[in-house]
Amino acid sequence: MQTISDEQGNITGVIVPIDLWQKIQPQLGPDLLAAREKRPRPIGLAKGLWSVPPDFFEPLPDEILDAFEGK
């Protein structure tokens, strides 16, 4: 397992190998698995924080297209 920490050194998460997760998951309580309430996120939280650049819809360069196609 590996821990994930923030800038102050507080542990914020844990990376668990899939084989270990499959063993411990059935033993975890529903409160632990549902870390936070499931509710819809409000629309427009990032409004005004970024915009789509004008060249967004331009074709990608050939070297990038080749990389996607494994060439």
Can you give a write-up of this model?
A two-stranded antiparallel ribbon has the order 1-2. The chain has helices at 18-24, 30-33, 62-68, and strands at residues 2-5, 11-15. The protein has a domain at 1-36. The two termini are 36 Å apart. With 71 residues, it is of the alpha+beta class.
- Which range does the strand content fall in? 5-15%
Largest sheet: 2 strands, antiparallel
Q: What gross morphology would you assign? A: extended
What gyration radius follows from the Cα positions, in whole Å? 21 Å
List the helices and strands in order. EEHHH
Portion in helices: 25-40%
Mean pLDDT over the residues: 81
Q: Pick out the low-confidence regions.
A: none
Spatial arrangement of strands, main beta sheet: 1-2
Helix- and strand-based class?
Answer: alpha+beta
Total count of strands: 2
Q: Please give the alpha-carbon distance between the first and last residues.
A: 36 Å
Q: What is the count of DSSP helices, taking H or I runs of 4+ residues?
A: 3
